[in-house]
Amino acid sequence: MLHMRAVCPVDHTDQVLAVLKEHPGVTHVVLLRGAAIDPAGDVVEADVAREATDEVVGALCAMGIDRAGGVTLEQIDTALSDAADRAEEAAPGEGADAVVWEELISRTGEESRLNVTFQAFLSIACLLAAVGVVTNSPVTIVGAMVVGPEFGPLAALAVGTVLRRWDLVRRAAAALAIGFPVAMVITFGAAVVGSYTGLFDRDMVLAAHQVDFVFQVGPFSLIVALLAGAAGMLSMTSAKSAALVGVFISVTTVPAAGYAAIAAVLGEWAICGYSVLQLAVNLVGIVVAAALVLALRNRRGRTRAVGRPLSNG
To answer: For residues 132 and 13, what is the distance between their CA atoms, to the nearest angstrom?
Structure first.
């Protein structure tokens, strides 16, 4: 279940209460009159079955509560309540299959921002991948996959494309188009220093056959990317968020970027080119599969989700 809190103008409170009390998927309705200070108004709280959340939030947004006040959602890990059990049983569908569109847009919008934290994680991941290439360590390569934050913008591209949220598409595209080149330049610089100080040499890298899979582009590169994109979007649109870790360690986006930087330092332009191609294949495959999965999900509430711009905060 999700815990919902709505800050609403006093003249909308009765309408909000009516929506919540009439919906079978809502329980534990609480009213705090005059509790909201900025913006001023009443606070209404309730626990909502996940499969009913999109419908309830849509009704509140149709009243303009999101503009005049605000609606927030929080995941409930444990609910010991017969009333909550009845609400989940009464709500149509299964909670794991329900898509909360506003939650999805908010989450992908936040994770697609190009900021210092995103760039730092992506650069560190590329550096880890470069170390894995130099030391012939698949384990380090896997570590780089987990650290890489690139799935956020990739998921945002899919969500923005399906819902026609071009502001989200622009933000995600900028994060990827700037983030990866910057990370690769940083990795290139570190590799130059490492090469000149004798940390590694050409023969050492070319003998590292255990990590050759990073730049070896083939049909399975696309297949794995498609499967990872599908699994990732299913994870983000359901309650199965733990599956995202498997997505991170199944694609060679960050490792390919790191290998391209190392190959460029060594003058191995063929390997560098294949690594960049591997990166492109994985990026495109993930976005295409994620968008297809999202398009096939229940699209309730799409009209409401299309119009609201993302916060710049």
So the answer is: 58
CA distance 308 to 209: 50
Segments making up each domain of the chain, as ranges: 2-98, 104-307
Q: What CATH number does the domain located at 2-98 have?
A: 3.30.70.120
70 pairs with which residues across the strands?
7
Rounded Cα distance between 70 and 80, Å, is 27
- What confidence tier does 241 reach under pLDDT thresholds 50, 70, 90? low
Query: At residue 305, what are phi and psi to the nearest 5 degrees?
Result: -75, -20
Whether 299 has a pLDDT exceeding 80, the answer reads no
Model confidence over 98-128: pLDDT tens digits?
677 777 887 787 888 899 999 999 999 999 9
Q: DSSP E strands: which ranges in 190-231? A: none
Tell me how far apart the alpha carbons of residues 130 and 171 are, in angstroms, rounded to a whole number. 27
Q: How many CB atoms lie within 10 A of CB 40?
A: 12
User: How far apart, in Å, are the Cα atoms of 297 and each of 78, 86, 234, 302, 310?
Assistant: 26, 25, 9, 11, 22
Tell me what pLDDT residue 307 has: 44
pTM score over 0.85 = no
Q: What is the pLDDT of residue 303?
A: 40
Task: Return the bridge partners of 3, or none.
Answer: 47, 74
How much is the pLDDT for 291? 93
Q: How far out from the chain centre does Cα 106 lie? A: 10
How far apart CA 126 and CA 185 sit, in angstroms, is 10
